[in-house]
Structures are given as structure tokens and as C-alpha cells.
Amino acid sequence: MKRWSATLRSAFLVTSVGWTAVLPLTSWIAGRAHAPSLLYAAAATVYTIGALVCHQLPVRSFQLWAVQMPVCARCVGIYGGAAIASVLSGCVGRAFQASHVRSAESLALRVNRLAILAAVAPTALTLVYEWWSGQMPANWIRAASGVPIGVMVTALVVAATGDQVN
Predict the structure, then answer these.
(1) What angle in degrees, to the nearest 10, is found between the helix axes of 139-160 and 2-31?
(2) Closest to 108 (Cα-Cα) out of 165, 159, 153, 152
């Protein structure tokens, strides 16, 4: 079980960084006038995957190389936060991982609910602001509000798949 958890954790961390890196690269490929067909097909695949998880509204998305990114600004922030936390978890190791004394189940029961609320609060505040004022915050604000969510999700995944003693 320990090996399976480590494999899942590694896959999550690599995928977090990889997906975040692919997003701007996809915009660059889509903006090229004469990119090879295989690259266009790869870009189309990323946009299709993005459509499954994001509304992809143009006004809520960053434009790179005069092309809309595959996901909205808030999703870019969430994925960016996950990638940052993934890299940091590799650098600081056990800071995100479960204690040797606790199992994943007891960790899940003891998760600091205030930390989760704090991670979601910036996004909630941008939504309340938008609904109350009728104005959409700038995309960089929406992206920044998503970063804590990505960091928290990554921290929870790493902690839940950390080394465990049964």
C-alpha cells in the first residue's frame, strides 16, 4: 500500500507541473500559423480537456500570443498553485506529508478546516464582489484567487498519500 501511495503521489505531482506547463505552450502552438499537424492535434486535445473542466469564457481567460488559453484565469491560478506546491513538496519533503504516527484516515479527520476555508476565501470573495457589484475582477485577480486552492489540494493529496504506519 505504501508503494502504491507513493506512486499516486508522484503521478499527481508530475501531472500538476506538466499540465500547468502545457497550458501556455498550447496557446503558443495554437497561435502559430504553420505548426505541424501533430502539434495542432495535441493543442486541440488540450483545449478539449480544458473544456471538460472549465467554462473557457474568452472574457475570463488570459490571451497569450493573441490566442485564448485552454482554461480560464481562475483555473490557471488553481493549476499554477498546484504546480508550485508540487515543486515545493519535492524540495521540503515531509512538510506536506502525513506523520508516521497517523494514518491517512486520521489525517483526513484532522484536516484543519480553517486552512481549507482560508484557501477558498479569495475565490469566494471575488465571486461575492462580482455578484454584488456586477463587475468582473481582472483576470490576474481571478488567477491569484485560485492559487491557494491549488496549493491546498496539493498539500492534502501529498499528506494523504504520505508515508504511513499501519
Answers:
(1) 160
(2) 159
Write down the number of H helices and E strands in the chain: 6, 2
Q: What phi and psi values does residue 86 have, to the nearest 5 degrees?
A: -65, -45
Contacts of 93 (CB under 8 A, 6+ apart): none
Name the burial class of residue 25, with classes exposed (0-12), middle (13-18) and buried (19+) by CB atoms within 10 angstroms of its CB: middle
Q: What is the C-alpha to C-alpha distance for residues 113 and 118, in angstroms, rounded to an integer?
A: 9
**Distance between CA 3 and CA 70 in Å, rounded?**
34
At residue 110 the predicted structure's pLDDT band, cuts being 50, 70 and 90, is low
Determine the average pLDDT of the residues in 33-56.
95
Rounded distance, CA 137 to CA 80, Å?
19
At 49-62, the pLDDT tens digits run: 999 999 999 999 99
**Ramachandran region of residue 102, left (φ > 0), alpha (ψ -120 to 50) or beta?**
beta
